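Lecture 7, part 2: worked example. A protein chain together with iron/sulfur cluster.
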Amino acid sequence: MTILDAPPTGTAAATARATPAAPVKTQRLVDLFEYGLDSPICLTWELTYACNLSCVHCLSSSGRRDPRELSTAECKAVIDELERMQVFYVNIGGGEPTVRSDFWELVDYATAHKVGVKFSTNGVKITPEVARKLAASDYVDVQISLDGATAEVNDYVRGPGSYATAMRAMQNMKDAGFTGFKISVVCTRQNIGQLDEFKAIADEYGAQLRLTRLRPSGRGADVWDELHPLPEQQRELYDWLVANGENVLTGDSFFHLSAYGSALPGLNLCGAGRVVCLIDPVGDVYACPFAIHDEFLAGNVRSEGGFQEVWRNSELFTRLRTPQSGGACTSCSFFDSCKGGCMAAKFFTGLPLDGPDPECVRGFGEEALQKRKMDGSIPKPEGDHSHRTERAPRRGVPVTLSLTRPAHPPVSACEENPLAGFTPGD
Ligand code: SF4
Ligand code: SF4
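Predicted complex, written out as structure tokens:
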């Protein structure tokens, strides 16, 4: 595993901000990161809300394009800025980023400007020809989403046919000789028992497995109760990571599990606004891809000073880089590695940010969840770009999942065009 799955960072990106509050003398990297960096080391950029699928747990509630999305010229201006800030790579996602007609143009532009690209895809556009092109580049990495090692489990959350699409894309990547691409799995109650099978699939295709945590963000808020791993499965996941974690990426998303024993490799720190942030399709900058809410909105790349101004000087990010109170967790003997868990998970389950994570392995989160007032005060993720077709899941509308009857087929062009309103080359 590597820290936040990031490639080595260079001097500028890894330079701690010289804030007055920064410690004079620090030993550990994590202590420096706590005070923020001049440039993010894990920048996620969602290029579009358009998507051919309707995954029930989509963190950005994607489906339909937003007509206000950044134009090609605006995206290139952001890339220019990232180059100036020496951001060495960016995680591109969506929606399904490859459905933007200028997607490959932007990837080429980024790599020509020394900004490496790792993009997440459901595989829909990874044809044999595209796979060969990708295999020829040293600066592009690909992450194919797969949330079940079998079609039954995957299509349960990602929709019918999505397993076949992902497997076809992987086969194309393998045939093109692209080794080391990523298979990205959101860990759920339904797939924790398949960890060995996921690893076998990754090995078979010459890929690397990446496991991430399900957060109650976007449409994920509506299915979190049903999908998030049970306590005994959290333990199973932790034990599996300890035994098999070598060469498995996690995006540092399981540091709350460290309280089971020794800390898992990684920063063990909520990097929101410190080393992590999100640029969304309309240019809004949030502290973290899982924290899409006004509370965590720092600014917009279209405003004066652009992304750099937001990253370095926004009031929100400045605040997040000051020492935070651990609240009730401070007295926990695992606080040093667990740090109270994930800010976004707490926020969207209505728990205090300075208290335990809802999936606290000591059970304090569960207790806190029971004590919540269910009076409508639990914050809701902002924005809903879900398809408007009858069977597609939407924000706030309860979804009934069934392992034998996935409810939301991929959106076909004749049913609803995910690119509606998108002008090619715009
Ligand atoms: S809010 Fe959660 S997902 Fe976001 S950086 Fe912090 S720990 Fe990670
Ligand atoms: S009490 Fe807080 S610090 Fe301790 S394990 Fe639970 S979430 Fe982590």
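Confidence is low (pLDDT under 50) at residues 7-14, 18-26, 411-426. The longest helix spans residues 162-175. Keep this in mind for problem set question 3.
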